[in-house]
Design goal:
Radius of gyration: 26 Å
Number of helices: 12
CATH architecture of the largest domain: 3-Layer(aba) Sandwich
Strand order of the largest sheet: 3-2-1-6-7-8
Largest sheet: 6 strands, mixed
CATH topology of the largest domain: Rossmann fold
Helix content: 40-55%
Length: about 290
Amino acid sequence: MNNKNALVITLGSEPQVVTLTLHALKKQYPAFKIEELYVVHTSPAESEVKRALSKLKDFFGNNSHDRLTVSFVPVTDRDKNVTDIESVSSISAFFKTIFRLLRQLKKNGYTVYLNASGGRKPMAIYSTVAAQILFDENDKAFYLTSSRSLVESKSLTPTEPSHWTKLIEIPILPWSEVDPAITVAAMHDDILTEPDFWKSLHRHKRKTLLMGFVYVKLTDSERKILFEVIRKGGSSSEIAKRLGKSRKTVEHQLGSIYAKIKEWFTMPQHVKLNREFLIREFKDFI
């Protein structure tokens, strides 16, 4: 294990997001020593992004940064550089790029600090998704905020008393702590970008949650009532006759099932539940 720290930043049209993040990180978290910096970017032929890259390369080439290793990571799709994040395919390409970078750093034992303030909004969204899949309790994600005067100055470092910049830590809930299946899936290329995987995972998690309710929360008698509603249907009187109960008992136990559903799934008490709801939610699993 390397026990090193890496900083990953998404870049849009403003190079400030990179240099000011380093400045704020050093000021707010002096104990954090960043050895490696990765700047994730699109590759348009002519644009502000290209000029931002040029400014950053000049900045890091002309300044000493405590032996900081700087790497520029282009977003690619089938080995071709992506020019902008403006379509489903380009968003998918960005996610694969940031996901593979973060995964490789974690595999190599790095603690990762992520700032996805730069670039288009989908870059921030999918960077956060990748972090939720791969991060552990030692990794951190930030959002950068700066004074208007500093932003308008275009300065790569604060130079005036009115200039200020701050990193706001974003809470990240590691999905691997919620579902260990995520940890296994994260080790395989592309599987997390496949719709069928997400559908299967969602179905599995939904089934687990519903079955947990059925076999943990309900009594044996309530479970039998639920099964009758789902499998055979009928009125309360018909269900009562099949189970050898009174109609009043069936209706009382149905009311108890509804109340427990609201508690289990943290539903508002004013929500009205009925048999159609039970059939819709449980029919595929019972």
